[in-house]
Amino acid sequence: MTDRSSRRPRAPRGTLNRDRVLAAAVDLLDHAGPDAFTMRALAQRLGVGTMAVYSHFQGKDEIIDAVRDLLFAEVELPPADARRPPHAELRELCRAVYRLLSEHPSVLHLLATRPVQGDEGTLFAERALGLLRRAGLDGPAAARAYTAVMQYTVGAALWTARGRKVRAAQGCDDPAERLRSRFAGLPPDRYPCLTGLAPQLAAAQDGMPQYEHGLDALLTGLLGDPDGRG
Amino acid sequence: MTDRSSRRPRAPRGTLNRDRVLAAAVDLLDHAGPDAFTMRALAQRLGVGTMAVYSHFQGKDEIIDAVRDLLFAEVELPPADARRPPHAELRELCRAVYRLLSEHPSVLHLLATRPVQGDEGTLFAERALGLLRRAGLDGPAAARAYTAVMQYTVGAALWTARGRKVRAAQGCDDPAERLRSRFAGLPPDRYPCLTGLAPQLAAAQDGMPQYEHGLDALLTGLLGDPDGRG
DNA sequence: ACCTGAACACCGTTCAAGT
DNA sequence: ACCTGAACACCGTTCAAGT
């Protein structure tokens, strides 16, 4: 199946460009992880010599920045709809970002290291801040609320990606099951809650449902209970 | 001032041990950052040959795990006090973890990659879960609430560390000011909220106050308003 | 048992050279 | 302008050797 030489045939001249490099970079990151994302592996996947990539990007950092902004631009922002309550629209906006970060866990590492610079990430911030204002928050409260929501989203996605990485490293068994058995095996007299709640803690490692649970609590605390006082 | 040879004198035999390696590792990580944390730099700081460290640790990963657990063990857990409302005690517990992560931003990178294995991190989880149960949450709700709080704490600390890293890289100017001027310079017709709220967004990059703002909102959403219905 | 230095298989990037 | 291969200065780790 694979090339005996483990080196694919060289692509003809002039076929390399920034888009092809970025597409291969996303593939490589998502498939092999950040550690395996090397300039040599990237070039090999593209069928060119290692240094060919440097004709289109200054170096690895510029590729990483471009990948981050490219993927953030792919967030499917729900259509603005003034009739819906801002709470609900904000929730969907956040879910879209979380979904992106979950589907491309490697971006997380990149997002965590350097902030988004691209225009599309900026548009997301604009939308979110507008919804927070519409929900009745003043300037400082909206800024703090936006920051808190982003902090939680990044943290939740990172938490999930961490579980996946452990699974990939340790023979592909369920990370939730590993967590459960680790907690369940602790001495119950010293850790009564932890041992008792091991199954529930494992159940909370389920990605989107857990994210929604925390997000709803956070938004309720930030905006007030939407079903409560009215 | 510095050694002309840029190589410090070798330590006498038998003075190296796990504790000295870990202390040097924490120093190196906090002072020089994760990228500069190499086995060669660590050994040089200890005044031994590179391979001497391998007599005490299997490799770099084992050192990283040990550093993470060591620092997590240093979290100053507030004394348990059944008279205080669980909401307040949980808040202090979380603040202690956030403070640790902020003071040792390099640990974050490590915490984000692999979960805490050490006993002390486990003790923190036990305390937090106990408080959530005391606050009236049932098993599944307590597990989800604990996970959400940890996710938010990691995300918030990472957010702060990211700002610091940018500052260190880009000539030491204030990261909040950089963020403010970037947002303030956007076209106001396309980004009315972002340009208008640039100062408030910059003000929200203040670490602990922002963390507390989000944490209180999250706890309120998870536990119910402590001052509200009673 | 503890520590060393050389060596191996990597990495990102520079550089002179090719087309 | 675009791409190449050799080379440089790194990295973590293996290994045979020293004490």
From TrEMBL, chains A, B:
- One matching Pfam family: TetR_N
**Presence of keyword Aminoacyl-tRNA synthetase:** no
Q: Where is the HTH tetR-type domain?
A: 15-75
Coiled-coil segments: none
Residues spanning the membrane: none
**Which keywords belong to this entry?**
DNA-binding, Transcription, Transcription regulation
As annotated, the DNA-binding region falls at 38-57
UniProt-listed InterPro entries: Homeodomain-like_sf, HTH-type_TetR-like_transc_reg, HTH_TetR, Repressor_TetR_C, Tet_transcr_reg_TetR-rel_C_sf
The identity of this protein, by name, is TetR/AcrR family transcriptional regulator C-terminal domain-containing protein
